[in-house]
Amino acid sequence: MAKAPVTKPAVTKTAHNSKAAAKASAAKTLPGIFVRSFPLTFRRAGFEFTQEGYGLLLQDLSKAQQEAIRSEPMLSVQDTEFPASAADDALMAEQLAEGGANETANPTGPADPNAAGTGGEQSGAGNA
To answer: Which intervals of the chain are annotated as region Disordered (predicted)?
Structure first.
């Protein structure tokens, strides 16, 4: 008598994404800020900021520096989180590549400010 074929359970993308999510949730992050200047360059708290902007870890800034940067009207400051190590960065990049990531911060902003749900819509009497 012939044996019945044994089938292996199919590996689904959902199972793969849950593994990636588990890995990414294990990724450690550090709190920081992403800072851009409104003029081409602007100096504050010992740093020269540009319109392109860059990130700073809060642990590397004194309270006085954080307050000076946050209260400066010539700077755009966004709270964000950065990978704690190169391994954490790799885990987050892998998750993004697999399409299973939930971004916590987008320092560059939306690609299309008029896209649905991005706040690009205007309100007021002119829109009827």
So the answer is: 1-22, 93-128
- Residue 46 domain flag: yes
CA distance 39 to 71: 16
What is the tens place of the pLDDT at every residue in 60-102? Answer: 999 999 999 999 999 999 999 999 999 988 988 888 888 755 5
Q: Cα 18 from chain centroid? A: 20
In this structure, is residue 15 part of a structural domain? Answer: no
Q: What share of the chain is helix, strand, coil (3-state, %, to 5)?
A: 30, 25, 45
Between CA 24 and CA 35 the distance in angstroms is 25
- Measure the CA–CA gap between 75 and 73, rounded to whole angstroms: 5
Domain presence at residue 105: no
As for how many domains the chain has, the answer is: 1
- Residue that is written with structure tokens 């809060």 in the block: 58
pTM exceeding 0.85: no
Q: Taking the CA of residue 36 as centre, how many other CA atoms within 13 Å lie in the half-sphere pointing to its CB?
A: 9
